[in-house]
Amino acid sequence: MSIKQSELILNPDGSVYHLNLKPENIAKNILFVGDQDRVDKITQHFDSIEFTTQKREFKTTTGTYKNTQFSVISTGIGPDNIDIVMNELDALVNIDLTTRKPKENLTELNIVRIGTSGSLQADIPVDSFVISSHGLDLNGMLHSYQIESISNTAIENAFVKHTHWSTKKAAPIIIENSKKLQNKLSSTETFTGITATAGGFYGPQGRVLRLALQDDNLNHKIDSFQYNSHRITNLEMETSAIYGLSKLLGHNACSVNAIIANRANGTFSKNPGKVVTDLIVYSLQKLTE
Hints:
- By secondary structure, the chain is of the alpha/beta class.
- The chain has a single domain (23-287), classed as Nucleoside phosphorylase domain (Rossmann fold, 3-Layer(aba) Sandwich), CATH 3.40.50.1580.
- Helix content is 26%, strand content 29%.
- The chain has helices at residues 37-43, 79-94, 153-163, 179-185, 218-223, 239-249, 272-287, and strands at residues 29-33, 48-55, 58-65, 68-74, 95-96, 101-102, 110-119, 129-137, 173-176, 190-197, 226-227, 230-236, 252-262, 267-268.
- A 5-stranded mixed beta barrel has the order 7-12-10-8-13. A two-stranded antiparallel sheet has the order 5-6.
- β13 (252-262) and β14 form a beta hairpin.
- The protein starts with 28 loop residues before the first strand and ends with a helix.
């Protein structure tokens, strides 16, 4: 059965609605960034550029670096944007946009998020790199889908017990990364841990301006959580959504984070631009080795 026009919206030129992309515009290796200005910071290292487009905050440039084709896509901020980007990317490779029917032979994308984040652990300093072994979903977006097959109930239950998680909030979900991509990106330079994904920047991440928090001790509960060898290393707004939708749709995903702040000791990078540039160069080199 064909997917209805109201469910899979296409632009007049046949491109997917938000990303403004056609299937021939993207590579199988995808780099996600939050900030649209960071797209050019990655593609300036490319040997060639083949395509670029932008609609709203979603900018895409496809090109080649060391004989490997990449598409760099800015997702904007938050799990709601990831829901748009992941579903439309998958539609580009796994749905025939003419017949509006899913393809019989599915394509597997390799998706790496190159992001910035704040460390929750005192021993993970600013200007370091963290690879997210898991995404800890604290925002609830993934509960719109059938997630039973991808979550880790043992860690989830331990986290709920440790934090006395409010039943009024969406139940936390733990999703593992692609070990294939983690192995490519890991080195003695990187830290590894669980990345918590919040649904907002202020209250959901424990920041107080004029509004009181539902649980003003939650950040301490998060950074003190440990399950076997797993601990929560950093907090941001995209990773768990990328991991969850990638698992459900059959893609590989891994998130690497430039640590520009340390929430445990209150420090901030003196040159955040440099650590982001260093992570970009590092990631491109590791992915093409």
